[in-house]
Each structure stands twice: as structure tokens, then as C-alpha cells.
């Protein structure tokens, strides 16, 4: 087994998230996609990875380096490769959550998958750019009226 290094964990996290994105893009209604991805289980695995990485950073020898109060502190925090890897896991997790929401919202609106796919691609690659694109695309199909007791 390869040594547990930030580079290895980075590569592992990248490889682990790809199947979830492929399932969302190619088979969003498949039972396996619903159980593993749309249920939130896949992002929870990434969240657990993030938690483990960030805890090991703050409990480790570099725990006092950096912070979130200024750009200089964030820069100092991400000088540590483990903290940088944690930050990457954070991005992967939250971008996947946004992709799941886009798929579920598009399905509820009846937005064709072919219209959704560019937004999913941009969400996967560029996060907020994909969210902006989806925000524009979702206006093509108004949301159905919410049923009593259901959030719109």
C-alpha cells in the first residue's frame, strides 16, 4: 500500500468523487445513484475525510499555524500540505452537494438532462460558475407549486 501522504490522499479523493459525478450525470434516477449519491452518503464520506484531515492538522504540530481571520492567516494555513488537502476535500464535498441539489431541483422542475449537463460539468470543474449557470437554466422551467407541508 502506498504511503499515506497528502498527495496520495488528494489523488484518492479525486478518484473517489468521479463515480458520483458520473452517476449524477448519466444515471441520476438509477437506484444505486439515489442510494449512494442523492441520499447524501457520498458527500458524507468526503465530509468524514475532511473532518479527519482538519482534526489531524489542528491536533498536530502545525495546529497553531494559520487561521481564517485574514488572507495572510489562510495563506499560512494552506502552506501545510495536509491542511491544503483538507481544503480540497472541502471543495469536493460541497461541489458534490451542489451537484446533487441541481439534479434534484432539475428533476422536480422537469428540466431536461441535456440542459442540466453543462451546469453539472461546470459545477464539477468550477463550482460556483456551475451554480450560476444552473441558476440561469432553472428559470427555463418554473418550479411546480409546493404541496402542503413541502418546502418549495
Automatic annotation (TrEMBL):
Looking up Pfam families in the UniProt record yields:
ABA4-like
Signal sequence span per UniProt? Answer: none
Return the InterPro entries for the record.
ABA4-like
**Keyword flag Transmembrane:** yes
Q: Transmembrane residues, as ranges?
A: 12-32, 44-62, 82-103, 115-137
Q: Which UniProt keywords apply?
A: Membrane, Transmembrane, Transmembrane helix
Q: What is the official name of this protein in its record?
A: DUF4281 domain-containing protein
The organism named in the record is Hymenobacter gummosus
Amino acid at each position: 500500500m502506498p504511503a499515506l501522504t497528502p498527495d496520495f490522499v488528494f489523488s484518492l479523493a479525486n478518484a473517489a468523487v468521479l463515480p458520483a459525478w458520473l452517476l449524477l450525470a448519466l444515471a441520476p434516477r438509477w437506484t444505486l445513484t439515489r442510494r449512494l449519491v442523492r441520499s447524501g452518503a457520498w458527500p458524507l464520506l468526503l465530509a468524514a475525510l475532511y473532518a479527519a484531515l482538519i482534526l489531524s492538522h489542528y491536533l498536530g504540530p502545525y495546529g497553531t499555524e494559520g487561521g481564517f481571520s485574514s488572507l495572510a492567516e489562510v495563506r499560512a494555513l494552506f502552506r501545510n500540505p495536509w491542511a491544503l488537502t483538507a481544503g480540497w476535500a472541502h471543495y469536493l464535498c460541497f461541489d458534490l452537494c451542489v451537484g446533487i441539489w441541481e439534479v434534484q431541483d432539475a428533476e422536480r422542475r422537469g428540466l431536461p438532462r441535456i440542459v442540466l449537463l453543462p451546469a453539472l460539468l461546470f459545477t464539477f470543474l468550477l463550482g460556483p460558475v456551475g451554480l450560476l449557470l444552473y441558476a440561469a437554466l432553472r428559470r427555463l422551467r418554473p418550479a411546480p407549486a409546493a404541496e402542503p407541508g413541502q418546502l418549495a
